[in-house]
Specification:
Layout lengths: L3 E4 L9 H14 L6 H4 L7 H11 L6 H19 L11 H10 L3 E5 L5 H7 L8 E3 L12 H10 L6 E5 L2 H9 L3 E5 L2 H4 L4 E3 L7 H4 L3
Parallel strand pairs: 1-2, 1-4, 2-3, 4-5, 5-6
């Protein structure tokens, strides 16, 4: 029986992918590495360090760890500049009604995101109060598809993994849920998220009552 929901942030609650893209594109341009929106899709659900490695591989570049750390920090500073301008108007359709209904039905809720800025984003969107537990990239050492972030979310909620339902927009996140022993709902394309227990275009297409039956 499902007693807790664990939500990814980017692409499920809010679409920050464009801000990530703008920041990574800015860095790639500085490094003279071609980087497109299609390339950016490879970075979904991936840690900052791994994302930088992917971009460097596109340019066939290898850099020392100290320089890579400096570049990742530069990208993050640009990204933070972008997200500090976010408003609640950027919350994706259906999110507020869904979270509100979950609260009313006493379903425990957690955020499980690879983003180290997830807490800042929730504050900007006035959504912090909707989550009992927030697990971010600051608390995890293993990126999805490792289930660490979701297992920490379940632990924080005081629930066994099998009692938690994960909402994810990335294939790596769906795989992480599976490895963690959790059911999942994919938010996005069935072609990418086919391993989820169900796929929907967004939370606006779902109700709490129906997903509890999955």
């Amino acid at each position: 029986m499902i007693k807790g929901f664990i939500f990814d942030l980017d692409g499920v609650i809010v679409d920050t992918a464009r801000y990530h893209y703008l920041a990574w594109k800015r860095l790639a341009d500085e490094l003279a590495i071609p980087f497109t929106e299609k390339d950016n899709e490879r970075l979904k659900g991936v840690s900052r360090g791994q994302s930088l490695d992917i971009i460097l591989s596109l340019g066939h570049k290898k850099l020392p760890e100290q320089e890579k750390h400096a570049l990742a920090t530069k990208k993050n500073n640009w990204y933070v500049e972008y997200i500090m301008q976010m408003t609640p108007a950027e919350i994706l359709p259906g999110v507020l009604p869904f979270l509100t209904a979950a609260r009313e039905m006493k379903i425990k809720t957690a955020l499980g995101s690879a983003s180290k800025n997830a807490g800042t984003i929730l504050n900007k969107l006035n959504l912090t109060g909707f989550f009992d537990v927030v697990v971010t990239g600051n608390e995890v050492s293993k990126a999805k598809p490792d289930p660490e972030v979701f297992l920490l979310g379940a632990k924080g909620l005081g629930l066994p993994p099998a009692a938690c339902l994960v909402f994810e927009d990335a294939g790596a996140g769906i795989e992480a849920a599976r490895r963690g022993g959790m059911k999942s709902i994919g938010i996005g394309s069935a072609a990418v998220l086919g391993k989820a227990n169900r796929v929907a275009g967004g939370l606006h297409e779902l109700s709490v009552e129906e997903v509890l039956k999955i």
